[in-house]
Write a structure and sequence with these properties.
This protein is α/β, with parallel strands linked by helices and 444 residues long. It is built from 14 helices and 18 strands.
């Protein structure tokens, strides 16, 4: 029998801005507003509000431990210098688009010290061949789906690409292990004053919005309400969690399932957040979820131009549905974050200004303006994708790029900065946001 291995999970960061690696289909985003003083203020505020690890890290640690090995977490921040890699038998490096060059640099630094490197994540699953010079093993798919034989091979002697596939039954996975992670650092300040942990009640998305990478990188699967509640209870009792951030691309496909989860969470006293569709919400369901602890709700609004969204195969909720949900949620004490995307093909500067004007009318508790990004596999990717590198440092979700027939990157970047600054520094927003934020922090 082989002896246990020390297996590190490495998350590499190259930006001091808020970086989320488990959004945009797992390609990641780097929050950026612009060069102005007000823009920098918003960037700093964002970085202080939340720090959450990708859920896959907890699952990966649990799988490592279930195989009889020792898990470790390495958070690598390459902001001013290259840290020295710590000794391990094997290092799993998370690959994204947001931090691609830094992640590759770290892989090669680890290998230079004689350690085995395994690449995993959306980036290497999309373009595995491009990572063969950086890693000993490149996992395509979800590493949690690996069999015992896979694990033995990957940790000891496998070379090249390993196809792990997807986890078909999410309830069969061991619950994520956060034992080796700095749990005390994980927070979502406006949700709770204390530890917030990420969870998934579902993976992927069943919709077909052409610009969204979730339909490319993960098939849609759901966990049972019982399994979700059991994990939440364990996170509270074992790790001291005060809140849960559901990292599902879509939490509320089924109203019945959503209600069951909320009812199961209600006795636990946890606060939680989730991303949902407005056309699958009504006041009764919102009230049930609020009673169950829902305090923060994200809505994919995208654009005021329905024709533009339908062109991208999105089935957009109506303006009335979105306005109703924002109003009803606010009346219950649920803080709403409306997400918009600027620069879709066919959109104009005037059209985007209409979207920004509507965002101000909605006046939600928070807002996000990302830019249309040509992620690999989406409708925005170049038709002749072979002529363009799959991995592009500009694919951050906030860096404007030139799309066919679109506005210039410079004009789009300037508009995005104006959208953020003009939204957040309105007297109406400040008058409503500041008291809400104070109340949220006081009662968290």
């Amino acid at each position: 029998m082989r002896s246990p291995r020390i297996v590190a999970i490495a998350s590499v960061y190259a930006h001091d801005a808020c970086t989320l690696k488990d959004v945009a289909g797992g390609y990641g985003t780097v929050f950026s507003v612009g060069p102005s003083i007000r823009a920098k203020f918003l960037e700093q505020a964002k970085s202080r509000i939340a720090k959450l690890p990708p859920v896959v890290y907890g699952y990966l640690a649990a799988c490592i431990e279930s195989q009889g090995h020792v898990a470790r977490y390495d958070e690598v921040r390459m902001l001013t210098h290259m840290p020295t890699p710590k000794a391990a038998d094997c290092v799993f490096v998370h690959t994204t688009l947001a931090d691609d060059m830094a992640e590759r640099t770290w892989m090669n630094a680890v290998r230079a010290r004689g350690m085995r490197v395994v690449a995993f994540g959306a980036a290497c699953s999309t373009a595995p061949a491009s990572f063969l010079e950086d890693a000993d093993v490149v996992i395509v798919g979800e590493p949690e789906a690996m069999t015992h034989a896979h694990w033995e091979s990957v940790l000891h002697d496998a070379k090249g690409i390993v196809h792990a596939g997807d986890v078909l039954n999410l309830d069969a996975l061991p619950l994520p292990s956060w034992r080796v992670f700095p749990v005390h650092e994980y927070r979502y300040a406006l949700l709770a004053n204390g530890v917030t942990l990420p969870m998934q009640s579902a993976r992927g998305c069943p919709y077909s919005c052409g610009y969204c990478p979730w339909r490319i990188t993960a098939s849609f699967r759901e966990r049972s309400p019982e399994a979700v509640v059991a994990e939440a209870r364990r996170n509270r009792d074992v790790y001291g969690a005060k809140a849960i951030s559901f990292r599902d691309p879509l939490f509320n496909l089924s109203a019945e399932r959503s209600a069951k989860i909320a009812e199961g969470l209600a006795p636990l006293g946890l606060r939680w957040s989730a991303e949902m569709r407005a056309d699958r919400l009504d006041y009764a369901l919102l009230r049930t979820m609020h009673r169950g602890g829902l305090r923060s709700l994200e809505l994919g609004v995208e654009s005021v131009n329905r024709a533009l969204l339908i062109q991208e195969k999105r089935k957009p909720p109506t303006e009335e549905q979105i306005e109703r949900v924002v109003r009803d949620a606010a009346s219950l004490g649920i803080r709403v974050i409306c997400n918009f995307v600027l620069g879709l093909p066919g959109d104009s500067l005037e059209g985007m200004k209409d979207t920004i004007a509507w965002a101000k009318e909605l006046n939600s508790f928070a807002v996000q303006f990302t830019v249309a990004t040509p992620y690999p596999g989406t409708s925005l990717a170049p038709k002749r994708s072979a002529s363009l590198p799959v991995i592009d440092a500009n694919m951050t979700g906030f860096t404007a790029t030139q799309l066919e027939g679109g506005v210039s990157p410079e004009a789009l970047a300037a508009l995005r900065e104006w959208a953020y600054v003009s939204y957040h520094f309105r007297p109406k927003f400040i008058a409503e946001f500041v008291p809400q934020a104070i109340r949220a922090l006081a009662h968290a």
